[in-house]
Structures are given as structure tokens and as C-alpha cells.
Amino acid sequence: MSKLYFHYWAMWAGKSLELIKVAYNYSERWKSVLIFNSALDTRFKQWEVSSRSWSSMPSITFNELTDFFKTIEDLDLMPDCILIDESQFLTKNQVNDCWRIVTKLNIPVMCYGLRTDFLWNLFEWSKRLMELAQKIEEIKTICWCGCKATMNARISNWNMVIIWEQIEIWENDKYISLCLKHYSENNIWNSIT
Ligand SMILES: [Zn+2]
């Protein structure tokens, strides 16, 4: 029986590399993997290592209108596994779609994305995935102090931002990972100098 997986991280914890590693493991065993990536993710070209690896893999761009179930159902050959990068851009219905793919088509779906935004609110998709996923795994990253980072901080003009749209175009220089202590203290200085 296939499963729905939720791999989440605070921020920039090397999840693209994790995803690529999984895809590589499947291909090594002659299994096919279908990768989705968000149309909102414009960081790609800036990520040298990840982008080079990623560019060698076939992927499908998704947006809020993408019908995941129908896309898979219409394929001539079913993939052995589906990987979804930047899953924080999924809608609740699309997460339900993933669940249908797992249960009706018996294909494992692994979602990689943020659990919370920089104000510590659950994304709609991650709340739904928390409810549906059979396997939930945190990809760890660390704060500048060396402690485990669990918070996303949005940075603008050298300060932490507290009011912003939840979904922005993600760029490396606008977000950092912090531990709870330094997030609470608004202490971002050492991580951006
Ligand atoms: Zn810290």
C-alpha cells in the first residue's frame, strides 16, 4: 500500500537535494519518478548545485489550477513515485488530490515544503497534509547559533518583517532560519553578516 509523505523543513534545509536524492534512488532501481515544481518558485536559476541536478530531471510545473489526479490518470505509463517540490504552494484541494492518487492509483506521493510561514502560521496545504499524511518527517536545519532552527524569518532592509503577504516569491536573501530564542529576540544579525 502506497503512502502520502510530508517532508517539511524550516527553511533552506537542503530539501531540494533531499528530493533529488530520492529521485536518484528510484532511477537507480529502474523506477520512474514524476516531479512537480511550483510555477511560483523563481529561485531555481540561482541555485547552482540544485539547479544543475534538477535540470537533468523531467519535471512538470504546477499552479493553483493544476489537476494532479487527472494529470497522472492521463499518463500512458504510471510513475512509480511522485515528488512535489515547493509544496507550500499547493491548495487544500490539491492535497486531497494527492491523497486520491495514493489511495486510488496506489502511487506514493512525497511532498516537500514549508510547514509554517514566517509568522508561524500553518500553510493551508501543510495543515491538510498533517491531517492526511501517513509519514511525516522533519528535515532539520540550524540557526546561526548552531541550535536547531524551527522558525522562518522574513528579512527586509536588515530587519525582520512581521507584516507581509504569506506567499511571496521566494528568494534566498529574504528568508533565514532561526531557533525559537533568536526568532523571539529578533536577533538575526549574525545570520546576515
Ligand atoms: Zn539561534
Protein architecture, described:
- By secondary structure, the chain is an alpha/beta fold.
- The protein has one domain (4-140): Rossmann fold.
- Helix content is 31%, strand content 22%.
- The protein is built from 7 helices and 9 strands.
- The strands form 2 sheets. The protein has a 6-stranded parallel β-sheet with strand order 3-2-4-5-1-6, sandwiched between helices. It has a 3-stranded antiparallel β-sheet with strand order 8-7-9.
- Helix 4 (92-105) runs parallel beside helix 5 (124-132).
- The chain is elongated, with a radius of gyration of 17 Å.
- Residues 44-56 have low confidence and may be disordered.
- The protein binds zinc ion (ZN).
- Zinc ion is lined by residues 143, 145, 147, 178-179, 181-182.
- Zinc ion (ZN) binds at residues 143, 145, 147, 178-179, 181-182.
Please describe the structure with a list of short key phrases separated by commas or semicolons.
elongated; binds zinc ion; 193 residues; Rossmann fold; 9 strands; single chain; three-stranded antiparallel β-sheet; alpha/beta; 31% helix; six-stranded parallel β-sheet
Strand content: 15-25%
Structure summary, number of beta strands: 9
What is the radius of gyration?
17 Å
Secondary-structure-based class equals: alpha/beta
Order of helices and strands: EHEHEHEHEHEEEEHH
Quick one: biggest sheet? 6 strands, parallel
Mean pLDDT: 78
Q: How many domain units?
A: 1
- CATH homologous superfamily, by name? P-loop containing nucleotide triphosphate hydrolases
| CATH architecture designation | 3-Layer(aba) Sandwich
